[in-house]
Amino acid sequence: MVPLVQTVHILAIGAVIGSGLMIALRTLGWVAPDQSLASTNLRFLRVIWWSLPVLLVSGLLMISAEPARSLENPAFALKMALLLLSVIVNLCYQAPLLHNPDFWELSTRRRRVGQLIAFVSLALWVGVIFSGRFIAYVEAS
Q1: Helix, coil or strand: residue 45
Q2: pLDDT of 52 above 60
Q3: What is the DSSP secondary structure assignment for residue 101, as one 8-state letter?
Q4: Per residue in 61-90, pLDDT tens?
Q5: How many CB atoms are closer than 10 A to CB 35?
Q6: What is the pLDDT of residue 118?
Q7: CB-based contacts of 116: which residues, under 8 Å, 6+ apart?
Q8: CA-to-CA distance for 102 and 20, rounded, in angstroms?
Q9: CA 45 – CA 43 distance, rounded (Å)
Q10: Between vectors from CA 111 to CA 18 and to CA 94, what angle results, nearest 5°?
């Protein structure tokens, strides 16, 4: 059962990070300049919010299978801290979109702030990926 759960977890990670990457790259203006930021956000935020519960459930199942390996591991603690920061940063990006889908495109200043958030988000997700991979190589203290 654990390999199946790991596979589901990895696929959900790919969906979340791939969607986050597309939003960030569009926010930075590096891809799909012909599409509005609002339509890109709408398309990919759905994938993120549907994948996060799958990540939570599969992650909890993997932790329950080997609690000491995860809960006592500093790489796991780092991953959870980076994940929490990433969720907070992404919520800060998404909150204004609830009231105005074009929020990040209304002025140059907002566009720059959105781009900064995109860079921070990308860096945090890379940190989540790497710290998650290091769980297997770092010994619990």
Answers
A1: helix
A2: yes
A3: T
A4: 988 888 877 888 899 999 999 999 998 998
A5: 11
A6: 92
A7: none
A8: 18
A9: 6
A10: 50
